[in-house]
Write a structure and sequence with these properties.
The chain is 16% helix and 38% strand. The chain is of the alpha+beta class.
């Protein structure tokens, strides 16, 4: 009987310890009671994400406050719990702030101390970070493949990646009140409008307007010459239909050493016809030579950056 009681007690103790360990694993990270805390933290978080909980040896009712931060509006601090969280998520960008620090003042009314928090940002694949609906497709794609993304994802990449340049067409050239014309056949267009790929840039995203459905043969091309020598950038674009379509290039690795023109080979490309002081070169079918000229603007745009911010 005594052995049975001992076994029951042992079982209860193991269960309690197991539950205690399980609960601890759900708790957010705490820091040591030293005067400096160093934390590794992924870039591109969400506002409100917990970074750490400030600990202290002071007894009684303790309050916490931010004395300073190396980047303005980086942190929020709960004065009662000591929870340090992300405020402006945009500043948690490895390309601009590899390290962000804060000094926290701690007091119980009679005693005081301070703690320095050093947040070392982990360099992530920034494209992956800003994809939501298209993340699974991006993850499963091979390097050199174009992946279809959403308008919001394209805009986030344009707005939040570091040193992004527009090529093919500027925003003012791309978005106009003019009516849109379309070609029914397969052509290759290259705008001659000073919206080129800048030297030492990687092309990583693209959008354009078409009225063709179930298109599978569209290609992005670049060349240092406006009228000839075009080479494909990545694979063909994935199948898409009429309207405005958005894409990102997985593992973009081709840096353009010189000023480079961007071209698009596709069916039913949209363009603004007869726009003075604007023109594009074109050629029949999918071609690397563009002998003809048209007055207007082909409606496509690429994104490039001087810094590779992806895997």
């Amino acid at each position: 009987m005594k052995n049975q009681v001992k076994l029951v007690i042992l079982f209860v103790l193991i269960t309690v310890m197991s539950c205690s360990n399980s609960d601890d694993s759900q708790n957010p990270p705490n820091n040591s009671d030293g005067s400096t805390v160093e934390i590794a933290f992924n870039e591109n978080p969400r506002s409100g994400d917990l970074i750490t909980i400030i600990s202290t040896n002071l007894s009684g009712d303790v309050t916490f406050s931010l004395s300073s931060e190396s980047v303005s509006n980086a942190f929020t601090l709960d004065s009662n719990s000591g929870e340090l969280r992300v405020a402006a998520w945009q500043v948690f960008d490895f390309e601009t702030n590899e390290v962000i620090t804060a000094t926290v003042a701690i007091s119980n009314g009679t005693e005081s101390s301070s703690k320095v928090v050093i947040v070392n940002l982990n360099n992530m694949d920034d494209i992956w970070s800003f994809l939501n609906d298209s993340r699974s497709a991006y993850e499963s794609a091979s390097n050199g493949q174009w992946v279809m993304i959403t308008e919001n994802e394209y805009n986030d990449l344009a707005n939040y990646l570091y040193d992004v340049n527009k090529c093919g067409a500027s925003n003012s050239q791309y978005y106009r009140s003019n009516s849109i014309s379309y070609d029914s056949a397969l052509y290759t267009y290259a705008n001659d409008n000073n919206a080129t790929v800048e030297p030492e840039n990687y092309v990583f995203a693209f959008k354009y307007v078409t009225n063709a459905n179930n298109q599978t043969n569209a290609k992005i091309k670049t060349s240092t010459s406006l009228q000839e020598g075009y080479q494909n950038v990545g694979s063909s674009l994935p199948q898409h239909s009429s309207g405005e379509n958005y894409f990102v290039l997985k593992g973009a690795n081709g840096k353009h050493p010189e000023t480079t023109y961007m071209a698009l080979a596709a069916e039913g490309i949209g363009y603004y016809n007869g726009i003075s002081n604007h023109s594009f070169k074109y050629g029949n079918f999918d071609t690397n030579s563009l002998p003809y000229n048209w007055t207007g603007i082909a409606i496509y745009q690429g994104l490039s950056s001087s810094l590779k911010q992806w895997n």
